[in-house]
Q: What sequence folds into this?
């Protein structure tokens, strides 16, 4: 992210929230056009899918995670596509890797060691993930420990009850504290949008997180019943555009949960290009929180080379 000027902690501006209103019907109508007339075809599709791999935060956040599973995931992050497929696509020298590997704090040291020398950052989920209901002192210490262990990105969860109560000042103060605890590590704020009630709440929470210094805003933990959706994503990226127009800072976006196939990821890339521009298609400003997505992308790329779909077990994640 070194080529992007990092967001700063801005003063809390409640007036920025006053006029935020999201027209749900209009948002849904706009989203219905993605993936239809904006479809990417043939060779362009292959290029976009190869590009999308670099946008993936390859993730394992299961209760039965082990060090060996994390090591295998890191191996996949370093070499996400079979060599013969890359050779057939003329991309053998492209040095394709995933954007990051995302794990619980317990496995940060394991992931950092497995990725040493690759330049692939480790992201750690923090602050009482996924519910965010731990004491504040515990949340801040968790961030500090993950940074000390080598995590370069910290994915925190916000306190949803503050959004539902409209307590924007307290939410701002909370995110500022998280940002300060991160130090040089980048802060990705998870809104858990499926639990915020309305798109207007999603928009306001997005703006507060950016004011408080977030480097990325992210939809979901992947543990909610509703995760990333196009209407939620459109709402959030338009807040990113608004914030950029107000401050000049470019904030990243990370949809997570439910994005498991190549077709859907192309729709999201199209949304980023059309709403924010080509800069926001790059890993520095756009990530997918996903695990099975890479599997389907690799199968689609192999189909483009051989004309056949391979069995999913030929592309293990971990």
A:
């Amino acid at each position: 992210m070194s080529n992007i000027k990092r967001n700063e902690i801005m003063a809390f501006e409640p007036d920025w929230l006053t006029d935020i209103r999201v027209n749900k019907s209009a948002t849904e109508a706009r989203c219905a056009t993605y993936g239809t007339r904006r479809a990417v075809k043939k060779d362009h599709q292959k290029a976009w899918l190869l590009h999308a791999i670099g946008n993936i935060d390859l993730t394992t956040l299961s209760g039965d995670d082990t060090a060996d599973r994390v090591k295998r995931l890191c191996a996949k992050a370093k070499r996400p596509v079979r060599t013969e497929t890359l050779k057939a696509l003329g991309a053998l020298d492209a040095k394709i890797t995933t954007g990051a590997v995302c794990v619980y704090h317990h496995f940060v040291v394991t992931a950092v060691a497995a990725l040493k020398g690759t330049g692939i950052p480790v992201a750690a989920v923090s602050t009482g993930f996924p519910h965010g209901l731990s004491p504040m002192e515990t949340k801040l210490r968790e961030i500090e420990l993950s940074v000390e262990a080598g995590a370069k990105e910290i994915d925190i969860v916000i306190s949803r009850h503050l959004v539902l109560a409209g307590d924007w000042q307290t939410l701002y103060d909370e995110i500022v504290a998280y940002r300060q605890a991160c130090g040089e590590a980048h802060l990705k704020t998870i809104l858990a949008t499926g639990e915020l009630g309305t798109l207007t709440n999603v928009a306001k929470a997005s703006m507060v997180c950016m004011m408080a210094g977030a480097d990325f805003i992210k939809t979901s933990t992947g543990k909610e019943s509703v995760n990333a959706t196009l209407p939620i994503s459109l709402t959030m990226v338009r807040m990113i555009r608004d914030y950029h127009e107000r401050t000049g800072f470019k904030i990243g976006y990370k949809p997570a949960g439910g994005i498991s196939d190549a077709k859907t990821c192309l729709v999201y890339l199209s949304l980023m290009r059309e709403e924010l521009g080509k800069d926001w298609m790059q890993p520095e400003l756009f990530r997918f929180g996903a695990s099975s997505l890479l599997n389907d992308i690799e199968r689609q790329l192999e189909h483009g080379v051989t004309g056949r779909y391979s069995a999913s077990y030929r592309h293990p994640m971990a």
Q: What stands out?
A: The chain has a mean pLDDT of 93.
